[in-house]
Amino acid sequence: MAVTIRDVARASGVHVSTVSRTFSAPHLVSADTRERVLAIAGELGYRPNRAARALTTGRTHNLGLIVSDIANPFFPPLIKAAQAYAREREYHVFVADTDEDPQAEEELIQTLAKQVDGVVLVAPRLTNQAIERLGMELPFVVVNRKVKGLSAVLMDVAQGAAQAVQHLASLGHRRLALLGGPRGSWTSEQMRKSAEAAVAGHGIDLTAIGPNAPTEEGGQAAARAVQGSGATAVLAYNDLVAIGVIEGLGELGVEVPGDVSVVGVDDTVAGRLNRPKLTTIVMPTPAAGRTAVDLLLQAVDAGGGRTAAQTILETGIVVRESTGPAPA
Description:
CATH superfamily of the largest domain: Response regulator
Shape: elongated
Distance between the termini: 81 Å
Radius of gyration: 24 Å
CATH topology of the largest domain: Rossmann fold
Strand content: 15-25%
Structural class: alpha/beta
Helix content: 40-55%
């Protein structure tokens, strides 16, 4: 016969409600009692009924995590870290992909709202107004976006962009092309502002090219504009765009880094395997995944009220083969 909560309570010498709290609200149970109950539950093979817990506590112990393109190698490390951290807190994560479509993003949020206790939105494509409206329904945390009244995890891409400009200036580059991302991207806007401020101190001419699709194809399509700008260096929205522009420039007979240096953003496996290996801005994606889930669970524990905690994670440049001295 299946082991019941009463069996665990009897063997532990505690009330049934104490066993229930051990699994549904462990912070309300003393450490010694919690450890004893969990140990005995493990010995007996007891597994709490999640559906029953949801009816009792009003929680599903499920979280939603929505990304704009699951095929982009930027997202998997974040997803894995978020899932692992959620599992430690006895939560499960439903992952969904919007394919860069804001309408699909809103539909997914509305669907998940019935099945989860909160949602993490990573690099959302919805407007801030839409996110604020949807955030009235259940707890939200946004990653790489600032939305009034919502908690956020921000990777300081502005810091990384400034370091990239400094690196390129030290190599003698004086004409820089900035390949932006999709329209409305918070990351793209932060990169632009930071690059504009940084080039002013180095006497560098900056040409902004975009918006661009945040894909390899987007980078390839921008290659001719880069060539036409006369730039000897490129700062790309992400590693995929950087890899694409390297391919596109190669097709035009432009060598990287001999003729043009290229810097990406994200430090993905694709960039490390590319030839030339990609100089890039390291984004702390695993830390962002863990932090976003932690902030979301804080909001859930607070009863779903709107919170506005903000965590900023540092970034930095790693220099590889795709950057070199400016051509004579």
